[in-house]
Amino acid sequence: MPSVGTAAVALFLLVIASTAGAQLSHKYYSTTCPGLQPLVRRIIDQALSQDPTLGAALLRLFFHDCFVNGCDASVLLDDTATFAGEKNAAPNMNSLRGFQVIDAIKSSVEAKCRQTVSCADILALAARDSVAALGGPYWAVYLGRRDSRTASQREAVANLPPPGASLSTMVSSFGAKGLAAWDTIALSGAHTIGQARCANFRQHIYNDTDVDPGFAGVRQLACPASGGDSITAPLDVQTPMVFDNDYYKNLVARKGLLHSDQQLFNGGQYDYLVSLYSANQTAFFDDFATAMVKMGDMSPLTGSVGEIRTNCRRWN
Fold first, then answer.
1. 67-85 pLDDT, tens per residue?
2. How far, in Å, CA of 312 to CA of 314, rounded?
């Protein structure tokens, strides 16, 4: 259920700890790699101080990893002459960024704790720390994932919701991953930071009727009816570099950039949640943090399954 306050969130996280957390633990590396989380946080803070847009990129990397066969760092694997992974799948090609930050973290972690910390866990920590660095909530990241030895371009195409998706498609897609409808609404708030390509929002600003005409007109100035596919615009026009609840305020004002964004507030049964989050940032932060914990527990590889990569871009 959606936010009912901090106490309920704390209780929910305890439930997570006793179920999913039976395998994952926020203290997983406390003895094998002490100081891991401050190390990751320092590198994230340094990277975002130089380029704040990397925050959204790193959060997106975690989403795109978890939605394809679980949170297993498969999205980080480079293609080879005999292997086509997820990086060049249609939803990811020329759009995923931030790999160099993950490489920098992995290099520092390997120097400190050889072949101990998985790339999958680094992705989870980087996503949390990116959100926090941009003003968003902070949550306990449960750790202990292992890295996959493969990736699937086909599964990336099949599992990642497109920017033109309907609300029912998104709820169904998230539901297939064990996430509730309210998780869909809360996790969509990740679009309070980041950019989208003209190719992904052209249809919405030119053809949809559920968009503010003035907003559409401004976006059309930079995104022509044809061509210019790689031109970008902020997903949140008000505060694109701050993790806040302005994304939901934009939806209420019919200023969602993507078709899939505005679908969340379009006369449907979940309009009330968008209205809640637009008026109550704490409610959004609480629900987003809770949903991120749930998403981070999507089919993790644990125990002896998978491996701990020494280089996140290739298996050992």
1. 999 999 999 999 999 999 9
2. 6
